[in-house]
């Protein structure tokens, strides 16, 4: 009972703003992720956590389990479509199921599904992206400004690097002020953004903060490996890619990059 009670409290604190907004917006304006089953909710939350941290291998498993447990949930189908191969039958299946199941839901739920309407040049459908999707995220956050998932991906959708850094820092500050210390995914995006801007010192410090905040994840070590790889510090890159694989041997990015590092450093 304690586990279930704690889970329900965690869900209300972290994600309830996506289903039921606070005083800043009308009730029921967020993405309708969950059903009434706390075990199903836990699975979806884990899927979201891994997805936000770019741990897509694990995220796929959780969302696949969610739709098997409850075939009426539309949001996991959105995530599975986003994780499927471009132009694959699986991608199109999850896209069509999300469109079917979102009927009768609120406007932000429908907007969330509509993010899949756009294909990139490779035929990929994803809830992530910019272009026309910027307008959708703008509409979503206007109607539900307190949803953590919406806040994060709205900030991520900002077009310029400067806008993205500012928006991510604003979200981070808001979450810290609200007592939310699970912000590793935000630190990850900020670290890459600082690296892209040329501020390597700040990028390194932010990647280190990401590791400190999410030490049991595998993506923080993969990200730090990426930092060292970009600086052509292949020994440190190799160390961190190996740490990522020690935590999760199926980490595809770390595995591929480690092969590349080994090839570059082979005598």
Structure description:
The protein is mainly α. It is built from 14 helices and no strands. The N terminus is likely disordered.
Helical residue percent? 55-70%
Distance between the termini: 58 Å
CATH topology (fold) name of the domain at 1-150: Serine Threonine Protein Phosphatase 5, Tetratricopeptide repeat
The level-1 CATH class of the domain at 1-150 = Mainly Alpha
Q: Whole-number radius of gyration?
A: 19 Å
Low-confidence stretches: 1-27
Number of strands: 0
Kindly estimate the percentage of residues that lie in beta strands according to DSSP. Answer: under 5%
Shape: globular
Mean pLDDT: 91
Structural class: mainly alpha
The largest β sheet comes out as:
none
Quaternary form = single chain
Order of helices and strands: HHHHHHHHHHHHHH
* CATH-derived architecture of the domain at 1-150: Alpha Horseshoe
Number of helices: 14
Keywords:
267 residues; mainly alpha; 67% helix; globular
Quick overview:
The protein is 67% helix and 0% strand. It is mainly alpha-helical and 267 residues long.
How is this fold's topology laid out?
Blueprint: H1 2-15, H2 38-52, H3 56-69, H4 75-83, H5 89-101, H6 107-114, H7 133-143, H8 148-156, H9 161-177, H10 184-197, H11 200-213, H12 219-230, H13 234-247, H14 252-265
